[in-house]
From TrEMBL:
GO BP: fatty acid elongation
Domain of life of the native organism: Bacteria
Lineage start: Bacteria, Bacillati, Actinomycetota, Actinomycetes, Kitasatosporales
Annotated Ketoreductase domain residues: 3-140
Full protein name: 3-oxoacyl-ACP reductase
SMART domains: PKS_KR
Single GO MF annotation: oxidoreductase activity, acting on the CH-OH group of donors, NAD or NADP as acceptor
Provenance organism: Streptomyces finlayi
InterPro entries: KR_dom, NAD(P)-bd_dom_sf, SDR_fam
Family in the record: Belongs to the short-chain dehydrogenases/reductases (SDR) family.
Pfam family, one: adh_short_C2
Length: 242
């Protein structure tokens, strides 16, 4: 049966791969992001995909998004996010103001955005539906404010699972390791760091966005209806590189 799926940050990278999967299954997919260009590009590829611009850290923008969405959402994928402070991860900020700004930006982008989106959509989620958060391997490593935000996301997901469970709605986290070919790391990683991330995997390769799709699809399926509040790592068996 066709479902209604919202993929936040669905214009690029992992979100795009996930959105394209559901659209190919015949589901109705809404994708969001702050920039309209990438969204339009994805929507142009499939009649099942609709693009709506939205900044998920902004409650007013989420209010406007609600007006654009169908009455019922079966699957919510909280994928929007990314490390807003990749270059200052060492935590060597001398200026406390800029340190605070950078730390807050990561919490906003990766934790608060997902919390606000789920809250905004809570009453629209269909019984038997599912929420999937895109976490990160960084949640289990010393990875600065980004890792802290993703760890917070995994913890906060436990609340979502508890609150929505009585309605038959599951809430789980898919936690990717290093995924190449997305805007996340593009032009931001030295060759040395890239090699270290690959060498840390058991599979000896970087992940690609399509590697994440199967885990999301499973957790959003009825086969996973008794799995909730869990974290599913999709990282090629990566061990910490820190
Ligand atoms: P991308 O940068 O390609 O995807 C991030 C998407 O989120 C973009 O489409 C971006 O669009 C959107 N986005 C970011 N902030 C907001 C916001 N405030 N409101 C709405 N949309 C937003 O990178 P990935 O595909 O790699 O990242 C997807 C998710 O996977 C992220 O949550 C990331 O943290 C996580 N992840 C990625 C890993 C990797 O190695 N690539 C590893 C582990 C986790 P726009 O800029 O137009 O808003």
């Amino acid at each position: 049966m066709s479902r209604t799926v919202l993929v936040t940050g669905g214009g690029t990278g992992i979100g795009r791969a996930v959105a394209e999967y559901f659209a190919a299954q015949g589901d109705t997919v809404v994708i969001t992001g702050r920039r309209s260009g990438p969204l339009k590009e994805v929507a142009a590829q499939s009649a099942n995909v609709r693009a709506v611009t939205c900044d998920h850290t902004d409650p007013d923008a989420l209010g406007r998004l609600l007006a654009e969405l169908p009455e019922h959402i079966d699957v919510l994928i909280n994928n929007a996010g990314g490390n807003t402070d990749l270059d200052a991860e060492s935590g060597s900020e001398a200026d406390l103001m800029s340190y605070a700004r950078a730390f807050r930006a990561n919490l906003e982008a990766n934790l608060i955005s997902a919390a606000l989106t789920t809250k905004a959509l809570e009453s629209r989620l269909s019984a038997g539906g599912s929420v999937v958060q895109i976490g990160s391997i960084a949640a289990d490593q010393a990875s600065g404010s980004y890792g802290a935000a993703k760890a917070g996301l995994a913890n906060w997901n436990l609340n979502v699972a508890a609150e929505l469970g009585p309605r038959g709605i599951t809430a789980n986290v898919v936690s990717p390791g290093y995924i190449a070919d997305t805007e996340f790391f593009r032009d931001r990683l030295s060759d040395e760091r890239r090699s270290a991330l690959v060498e840390a995997t058991a599979t000896g390769r970087a992940g690609v966005p399509s590697d994440i799709v199967g885990a999301v699809a499973f957790l959003a399926s009825s086969a996973a209806r008794h799995i909730t509040g869990q974290v599913l790592n999709v990282n090629g068996g990566a061990r910490s590189t820190r």
